[in-house]
Design brief:
single chain, little secondary structure, 12 strands, about 10% strand
Length: about 270
């Protein structure tokens, strides 16, 4: 099975659908449009690498989406538009390399699995507005640091898994020490010297010598990349010297006049 069967389009009262372990490669814009009552969708262990924008727009009641163990590489910003009731998202074991603003409008999201990917960068606004996020799994990626504002709005975050990443315990991650010191959360997998033993903080202990001279402020103003519109503005042409403009104009007029003369002579 390479595509979602059209037969499912007539099951308008379906609440749970599992297509795990097939060979599905693509999810089209209209593949799931009639499954408006669907609550649980399992597409785990397929070969999905194409998902058209709008594929989930009609799934307004979906609470669990499992896309784990597929071939997904990109997460366009509008990919999950419409999933306003989604609580659990599985994207583990794919080929994702970056996270930008894909999850921004999943206001009811509680559990997010992004482990076992190839993520090397995360936008500082990637989890903005996810006020209900409770569980975040980022283990087994290519992360060396996290942006300073990443967890700012995650007031209910209780479990964070970060193991098996090539972390750099330098000034860029000093903010993480401050954040963990004020939160009662289970944080595993980021074993830096300026952090205490697992699940504890080192508030009363001095920072290591290599971090004493950090000049990076703990609270750093940062542009909200997700608030920038998707439309781009073409850059203005560079300012040219007036002599260059005049020369180009003369050449243009000479070429047109010469071409007109030639055409008349030929005629």
């Amino acid at each position: 099975m390479r595509y979602v069967p059209q037969a499912f389009r007539n099951l308008s009262s379906l609440t749970r659908l599992s297509l795990e372990g097939n060979h599905i490669e693509a999810i089209g814009r209209d593949s799931l449009k009639d499954l408006e009552t669907l609550y649980d969708l399992n597409l785990r262990k397929n070969r999905i690498w194409i998902i058209q924008n709008g594929a989930f727009t009609k799934l307004l009641r979906l609470g669990m989406l499992n896309l784990g163990h597929n071939f997904i590489t990109d997460l366009p910003n509008q990919l999950f538009e419409g999933l306003i009731q989604l609580k659990t998202m599985h994207l583990e074991a794919n080929r994702i390399t970056a996270v930008e603003c894909t999850f921004r409008h999943l206001l009811n999201l509680r559990n997010l699995y992004l482990n076992n990917n190839q993520i090397s960068s995360i936008s500082d606004s990637a989890f903005s507005y996810l006020h209900k996020l409770h569980f975040l799994h980022l283990s087994k990626n290519n992360l060396s640091s996290l942006p300073i504002r990443l967890f700012t709005e995650l007031t209910k975050l209780k479990y964070v898994f970060l193991s098996h990443n090539p972390w750099r315990c330098d000034c860029k991650m000093l903010w993480f020490w401050q954040w963990t010191a004020t939160r009662r959360a289970v944080i595993k997998g980021l074993d830096c010297a300026f952090l205490g033993p697992p699940n504890t903080t080192a508030l009363n202990e001095p920072h290591p010598g290599d971090l004493r001279d950090c000049t990076v402020p703990l609270q750093l103003a940062s542009e909200d990349k997700c608030s920038v519109g998707s439309t781009s503005v073409a850059p203005e042409p560079p300012n040219l010297p007036s002599k260059v403009i005049l020369l180009a104009l003369v050449c243009y007029m000479w070429y047109n006049v010469r071409g007109w003369d030639t055409s008349v002579a030929t005629f």
